[in-house]
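[scheduler] slot 2 assigned
[scheduler] job type: sequence-to-structure, two independent chains
[scheduler] chain ordering preserved from manifest
[runner] begin chain α
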Amino acid sequence: MSADWYVGIRSFCDYWRHAPTLQQTFKALEDEFNAENDACVDAAKAMVECACRLLVDELDDPIAPVKPKDENPDFGKWLAAAVRVLHLDQVRDEAFKKLISQYHKLGTTLGDLRNKAGTMSHGKDGFIAKLSAHQRRASVLAADAIISFLHEAYIERQPELIRTREPYERFTDANKLIDDNVAVAAAESEFDAAVDISIVLPNDDAINLTIEASRLLFEFDREAYVAALLACREATAVGDQGDES
């Protein structure tokens, strides 16, 4: 087996490398696929659903949400919602609309295959025949095609900056524009172990922030945060021993 069968899934997971559940699902897919287990069918379907949910949560408009309202929405509803938040349902070209419908059918078929052949989501007859390598590859290829289609559509969208869960590094142009056009001043805060930061905008308006030392370390240098925590624990322990004596 080769990772060449799911290059689109790998690309999507690399882009969203900070999404832990997605990474866990991807690992399950790789493990089961490489082990030539039929459970890779379950994982392939789970990958598509996880991708759809991620994109819906990222792009959905809270004022006019398209996220399924059911407690446990079925697979088709998640796929349809992903198509809608990506505005793929708004194209005028009829041929492209037919192409989109085929992706939806492909997703439905993948779900049906999971229900019938997947070994992990539902208990199966212990002596049922194993799928062929071709059948397992077909299920992974189907998932890869759907996720690639959705991912490429997402890349063309501009995320909503107020709500996005994408990392800071994704917005290099916007970051540089801000850094090149604002002035920053910092001062000791009236609060303990905090710093006041004033960011002066080009129109002379100012944005004032108060940032605690712990938050600053936690957000920007996790290793430094741990080092500070250990040092503080040691200092506190020494202080407690001194009080006891």
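[runner] end chain α
[runner] begin chain β
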Amino acid sequence: MKLRKLTEADAEELVRAVTESLPHLRPWAPWAANGYDLETASAFLCEAAEEWERGISFPHAITVDDAIVGVVTAMRRDPGDVVEIGYWLHPGHTGHGHATAASAELVELAFALDGVDRVQIWHDEANVASSGVPRRLGFTEVDRRTPSRVPPMGNRVGVDVVWELRRQDTRSRGQ
């Protein structure tokens, strides 16, 4: 597994990876609820490039043998000392540690940004698979929020589970 910055040239490959993953993504990802086409991918990649330049979002392609198999993103949130990590994987590539390894790299990226003291991962309470990543990386569950940021849909029950890793915690573990 390798990470690389997403570019506008990735639109067709991203459409392929998302389209193949739609049954897996639809229950959890509002952006996948109505399908995913080249126009949607191009708009996402254009916005991603702009947000990367502004220093607020850093989307990366998760690749295996140079093929995109998912995306992991570090996003600055308010307050400014927080970066949130989000991820998705093609169902043919789950269970191999790719989301955990990719998220671990973005934790390092996040803590290298000025003023960042906390990294968070949010997921719906029913998305048990997504809870494995923060658990394996040493995050602590800090909150369960209702109503959730995203209205319940698909398999979502509408309770956001919030995991957090603090810079001071990584220092104490020698990371």
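[runner] end chain β
[qc] chain β: The domain at 2-172 is CATH 3.40.630.30 (Aminopeptidase).
[scheduler] slot 2 released
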